[in-house]
Amino acid sequence: METPIYTKHTLEELVNAYSEVKGDAEFANYFIEQYNQAFKVYTGNVDEEGTPAERALNFCFKYYMPILLQQLDKGHSAKWAHEFASSSQIEEDVIISEAYDEIKKNDTLWAQNELIILCKSLGITDPMQVNYYINLIDIGVLSEKAVHRSKAYIDIFNKELAKGKSFLYSQVYANEKAAGFYSEVYCRAYAWAFEETVLKSKSESFRYIFTCNFAEIIAENYHDLEQAMNDDDFYFYVNPIIASAQATDFIETHEVENPEKFRTLYVDIFEKINTLDQSPLLQIEKDIDEEVLKLTLEKLKK
């Protein structure tokens, strides 16, 4: 049995039909693209009434065009509006993520600008909250959750500033707290450690190792940061973190034979030299402890 041949609407017919609804022919190419896609789908399904051409045109006007025009009215680009209107997804959260990802393939700034426009329609106007929302969408967080987290973030940030905390501390603490994954003591310790390493101009590798491990150790062993700082055993927990961060930072910037052995030796010697009556947090200022480094290299050669 031969497959029947169905006739499409002409290009002129499609442009005229689109113009009657939109008021002009601007962006008609997207409409035609959607029509052709719908025509292809309906050609493979002949059980319903009407020709594929009629059903495709009806689909475009009933489902595609209202959404397209709504997105254009909000200030979005035709590309965003088309991606939004032509999505086969039902949940708007998923549609937003897919439209963003599609545009980001060609231009990241363009995609971010679409989210800025979206934020306006969502009632998100604070620049920091907008930026936080964009970052969440960029890492795959769905829109509804991103809205709640960005709201929590800006509220927490403002409260910390009002308490007299620095801009950096407030920003880092709010970011950790709004994520909802970590305890209060972890978030406080993380923000404190991050700020300390920035103020002391530490490298990114040192900052990452020290900040994450410091926050974990504090959260595992103390109720709050102040309690930790006043504990005689505090240095017992912190010394290995500082030493490991220094050793790793040194390995990344120098040629070191047997890096893992170097790190193990360095941490061990660092802990033995830095006794409890010293303040190891001062060691954050150093890129490397020269005395510990000397002894480590000597042992490494043996």
Structure description:
With 302 residues, the protein is mainly α. The chain folds into three domains: 1-86, no CATH class; 90-181, no CATH class; 183-302, no CATH class. The protein is 72% helix and 0% strand. It has helices at residues 11-22, 28-43, 52-73, 78-86, 92-104, 108-122, 127-138, 143-162, 167-179, 184-199, 204-221, 225-229, 234-253, 259-273, 290-301. Helix 7 (127-138) crosses helix 8. The chain is elongated.
Secondary structure: elements and pairs:
Blueprint: H1 11-22, H2 28-43, H3 52-73, H4 78-86, H5 92-104, H6 108-122, H7 127-138, H8 143-162, H9 167-179, H10 184-199, H11 204-221, H12 225-229, H13 234-253, H14 259-273, H15 290-301
What labels describe this entry?
72% helix; 3 domains; 15 helices; mainly alpha; 302 residues
Task: Report the structural category.
Answer: mainly alpha
Query: Can you count the beta strands?
Result: 0
Distance, first to last CA: 85 Å
The gross shape turns out to be elongated
The radius of gyration computed from the alpha-carbon positions, rounded to a whole number of angstroms, is: 29 Å
Q: Give the number of domains.
A: 3
Approximate helicity band: over 70%
Rounded mean pLDDT is 91
Low-confidence spans: none
The major β-sheet equals:
none
**Strand and helix order:** HHHHHHHHHHHHHHH
How many helices does DSSP assign? Answer: 15
Range of strand content: under 5%
